[in-house]
Specification:
- The chain contains three helices and no strands.
- It is an all-alpha fold.
- The protein has a domain of about 70 residues.
């Protein structure tokens, strides 16, 4: 049996998601960089009370964007753990199905 083939548990969808991990991270990075650029550009060319209020709100949003990076990282790590657990379970089920009398 080739590596990554399943015996009893089909984990192909999870593996496809894992393959897109770098795309998710790259897209997040692009959004983050663009957001920072927009805020910087606006604040360099905008003065007054409204600008200060905008910057305050933008700071809160930036913290939330950072939180999204943490969540994305945790999700990717969790997916790796789930795939490993599925693989180990699948291997055990495959061994059992080939030799059900073994203990």
């Amino acid at each position: 049996m080739a590596e990554n083939e399943y015996v009893c548990i089909d984990s192909r969808a999870m593996r496809k998601c894992k393959e897109k991990k770098q795309d998710f991270i790259s897209r997040y990075d692009a959004i983050s960089v663009r957001y920072d650029w927009i805020v910087r550009d606006l604040t360099e060319n905008w003065q007054g009370e409204a600008a200060e209020l905008f910057l305050k709100d933008a700071s809160v949003i930036r913290k939330n964007i950072g939180g999204i990076a943490d969540i994305l990282s945790l999700m990717c790590s969790t997916l790796d753990d789930v795939i490993l657990a599925f693989s180990q379970t699948d291997t055990a089920l495959g061994e059992f199905s080939r030799n059900p009398n073994a203990k």
